[in-house]
Known about the structure:
By secondary structure, the protein is α/β, with parallel strands linked by helices. It has helices at about 15-25, 45-50, 65-80, 95-100, 125-130, 165-190, and strands at about 5-10, 30-40, 55-60, 85-90, 105-110, 135-140, 150-160.
Amino acid sequence: MKKRIAIFISGRGSNMDAILRQAHEGILRDVCEIVLVFSNNPDAKGLETAKSYGIATICIPSKGKKREDFDRAVIDLLAPLQIDYIILAGYMRLISPFFIKTYRDRIINIHPADTRAFQGVGGYDWAFENKLKKTHITVHYVDEGMDTGDIIEQRELDISKMTTLGQIEKAGLALEHIMFSEVLRKLFENEQ
Length: 192
Ligand code: GAR
């Protein structure tokens, strides 16, 4: 059975785009179905990209809402859709404990750094400012903390010869786009 997936985004959605492409005609095609792209930000550029694939999109603006109220609305939205996994692809909001409990071990995030060394926003800036020689892209389960859940897979990125933040971001995102779908494929096919 194909896994039923909701992708959550807050902005550009380039990771979402990569996953949609793989689900449409690549390595995710036979293991999952993207049921919904959800955003907390009405201006998220990725919403337009999702529509261009013919995927259902829903936005509930989070601005000005209490975290609990907002997360309850999102749970209510997802309930009839029988979602197996929620994929966070640049979803820049901490998720409430009751939401995590509902989808325990079924929410997966990508983070542009080693989550044991750096959490939060700006993983590439952190690597650049600290003049790291290598950094690690991490795909992990989401728990109650910020970027603290169990690591599913990490991939090393050699940034020793890169002199600008732009170079690091470009190389990092290229790796994210390949890695995320490959990790999801392994996870979903192991559960068939
Ligand atoms: C990606 O680099 C992702 O790893 C990062 O946000 C960017 C979203 O880009 N996520 C985090 O920092 C989570 N803590 P995208 O919208 O183009 O996929």
